[in-house]
Amino acid sequence: MANLTVVTGSLLMGFSNIWELQVLHAIFFLLIYLVAIMGNILIFTLISLDGKLHTPMYFFLKNLSFLDLCLLSTTIPKSIANSLTRTCYISFWGCVSQLFLMVLFVASELFLLTMMSCDRYVAICQPLHYELIMTRGACVKMAAASWLTGGLFGALYSTSVFTLPFCGSKEIHQFFCDVPPLLKISCSETHLALDVSVAFGIGKMVFCSIYITISYSHIFSTVLKIPTREGRSKAFSTCLPHLIVLMVFTTTAVIAYLQPPQESDSLLDLLLPMFYTVLPPTMNPFIYSLRNKDMKTALMKLIAWEYFSKGLIPKSFP
C-alpha cells in the first residue's frame, strides 16, 4: 500500500537538456497544433453552418474533427508548456486524466472511422438503400456508440494501469502519459488486468481495420467500374490516403503496446506515439475535407458572406 501512495506526481521527459532545442521543439509542436486546430475548426464550422452539408457523411466528418481537436489538445499543449517553462512535472491526477482522455479519443476515432467506411460502402455500393439505412437516428447512434466505446476503453486502461504499484524513478520516458512508459516505472512484474485491457484494445483495432479494409475493397471494385477517369481518380485520391494513415496508425499503436518493456529507450519508442496521437488528427482535415469540392464551395460561401456582412463587397452592381 505504501508503494501506491508514493506516486503523487511524475516527470514527463523533456525533448532535450539544451534550452535552444527545447524552444525549437515547442515551436515545432506549436506549428503542428495550430495547423491541425485551424483545419479541424474550419471543417467543424463549415459543416455546422452550411445546410447542404447536413448529410450522414459530413455528420461523421464533423464528429471526427471534434475528436481530433480533443485528442490534440490532450497531449500537445502540455508538452509545449513543459518545453517553454523547462518544468516537466505532471500531477498524479493530471497523468490519470491524460491517459484516460487519450485512450478515449483514440478508441472513439478508430470506431468512428469504421462507421465512416460503412457509410461510404452503403453510398457507393448500395446507393438505392442509402437513405433507408443511413438515417439520422442511425448516424446519431453510431456516433454515440463510438464515444461510449472510447469511454469504456479509457476507463478500462486508466484503471488497470494506475492500480499497479509504482516505485523507483518517477520519470515517464514520453512527452505524455501513455501505457508503455508507465509500465516501465511500475514495480509490478505481473499486470493481468492491463494485459486483458490491451488484448481487448488490439482485438478491437484488428476488427476495425479488417472491416475498413473489406469495405474499401468493395468500394474500389465498384469505383473501377466507373466509366470516367475523373470519377475514379477522385475516389482513389480520398480512399488511398485514408487507408495509408489508418495503416500507419494501427501498426505503430500495435508495435508500441505489444513490444516488451526495455530498460533503455530508443528513438523509435519516442517517435511511435507521434504516429497514433499526432499524425492522424493533423492529416485528417487534408484527407477528408479540405480537398472536397463541397467543402470548398461552403468555404467560398462563408468568405463571401463575411465580405457582404462587412460591406466590403457591394450587394448590387450598377
TrEMBL record:
Protein name, as recorded: Olfactory receptor
InterPro entries named among the record's database cross-references: GPCR_Rhodpsn, GPCR_Rhodpsn_7TM, Olfact_rcpt, Olfactory_GPCR
UniProt source species: Vombatus ursinus (Common wombat)
Membrane-spanning intervals of the chain: 26-47, 89-112, 133-156, 192-214, 235-258, 270-290
Broad class of the protein's primary localization: membrane
Record's keyword terms, sorted: Cell membrane, G-protein coupled receptor, Membrane, Olfaction, Receptor, Sensory transduction, Transducer, Transmembrane, Transmembrane helix
Bilayer topology: Multi-pass membrane protein
UniProt key word Membrane: yes
Residue span, G-protein coupled receptors family 1 profile domain: 39-288
Sample GO molecular function, one term: G protein-coupled receptor activity
UniProt-annotated location(s): Cell membrane
Pfam families per UniProt: 7tm_4 (PF13853)
Role: Odorant receptor.
One Gene Ontology CC term in the entry: plasma membrane
Matching CDD domains: 7tmA_OR14-like (cd15227)
Record family assignment: Belongs to the G-protein coupled receptor 1 family.
